[in-house]
């Protein structure tokens, strides 16, 4: 059952996996939110845990940074561990001027400068979209909890340090809310394997303004996003 990247045994993952980029955020989520959390993977330091949230069995695992790393884990979780749905819980940089630090964004769709989804669709554009049922669950939970969220497009870039701002300028003009590095790849993998995926993001910095959260806050805060996402999974 073990894969080249995951040593967990058969049945070790729950049907639902939360997938932050940072493996230490995965550890923090397991320690803060899951009862009886058990560490089920440490290969490459990509920590994974399974435990219970208010009686629901849930797993959480780091994906690493960028579409290639995230795609490896997503594919192995869907195909080797029979995971049904993956929810990325990530950080992002705001693009639109009216978005503030710590705002929550639900990525209904994800643009990208990566070639992975064109490779999947014979060279053509693939509309990388969230699973509607998962998206609606989290949006409804946000409404019920009176947690403001923005729902829309993000852009998943290959380069964190881009040589020019052209892509961000065009994304801004086209209403793209934020930039991160995995959602479009995750949605492509989910589509390829007939599985479900959603990306929920907390704004950690603003690409137009000199504003950013510390690395510690990126690892150990984001409580509003975590509670919203986990509560949305309950019946
Ligand atoms: O905080 P995570 O979930 O890693 O997400 C964002 O942070 C990393 C870049 O700093 C990229 O992975 C980007 O998508
Ligand atoms: O990918 C990312 C994540 C956070 N902030 C950015 O500017 N880019």
Please tag this protein with its features.
235 residues; binds 1-O-phosphono-alpha-D-ribofuranose; 5-stranded mixed β-barrel; binds uracil; Rossmann fold; globular; 8 helices; alpha/beta
What's this model, at a glance?
With 235 residues, this protein is an alpha/beta fold. The protein is built from eight helices and ten strands. The longest helix is centred in the first third of the chain and has 14 residues, at 67-80.
What would your notes on this structure say?
- This protein is of the alpha/beta class and 235 residues long.
- It has a single domain (16-233), classed as Rossmann fold.
- It contains eight helices and ten strands.
- A five-stranded mixed β-barrel has the order 5-8-7-6-9, surrounded by four helices.
- Helix 2 (67-80) runs parallel beside helix 6 (183-192) and helix 4 packs across helix 8 (223-233).
- The model has no long low-confidence stretch (mean pLDDT 97).
- The protein binds 1-O-phosphono-alpha-D-ribofuranose and uracil (URA).
- 1-O-phosphono-alpha-D-ribofuranose binds next to strand 5.
Strand order of the largest sheet: 5-8-7-6-9
* Coarse morphology: globular
Number of helices: 8
> Strand count, sense and closure of the main sheet?
5 strands, mixed, barrel
Q: What would CATH call the homologous superfamily? A: Nucleoside phosphorylase domain
Binding site for a purine D-ribonucleoside: 5, 180-182, 204-205
InterPro entries: DeoD-type (IPR004402), Nucleoside_phosphorylase_CS (IPR018016), Nucleoside_phosphorylase_d (IPR000845), Nucleoside_phosphorylase_sf (IPR035994)
Domain Nucleoside phosphorylase: 17-216
Pfam families: PNP_UDP_1
């Amino acid at each position: 059952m073990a894969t080249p990247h995951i040593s967990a045994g058969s049945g070790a993952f729950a049907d639902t996996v939360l997938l932050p980029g940072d493996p230490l955020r995965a550890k923090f989520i397991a320690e803060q939110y899951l009862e009886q959390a058990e560490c089920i993977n440490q290969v490459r330091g990509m920590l994974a845990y399974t435990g219970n949230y208010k009686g629901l069995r849930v797993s959480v695992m780091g994906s690493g940074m960028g579409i290639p790393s995230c795609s490896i884990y997503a594919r192995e979780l869907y195909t080797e561990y029979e995971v049904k749905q993956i929810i990325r819980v990530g950080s992002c940089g705001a693009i639109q001027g009216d978005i503030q630090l710590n705002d929550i964004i639900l990525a209904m769709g994800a643009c990208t400068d990566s070639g992975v989804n064109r490779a999947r669709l014979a060279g053509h554009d693939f509309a990388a979209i969230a699973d509607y049922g998962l998206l609606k669950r989290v949006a409804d939970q946000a409404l019920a909890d009176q947690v403001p969220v923005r729902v829309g497009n993000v852009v998943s870039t290959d380069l964190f340090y881009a040589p020019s701002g052209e892509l961000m300028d065009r994304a801004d003009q086209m209403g793209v809310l934020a930039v991160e590095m995995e959602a479009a790849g995750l949605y492509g993998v989910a589509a390829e394997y007939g599985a479900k995926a959603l990306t929920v993001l907390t704004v950690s910095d603003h690409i137009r303004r000199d504003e950013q959260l510390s690395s510690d806050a990126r690892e150990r805060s984001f409580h509003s996003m975590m509670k919203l996402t986990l509560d949305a999974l309950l019946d």
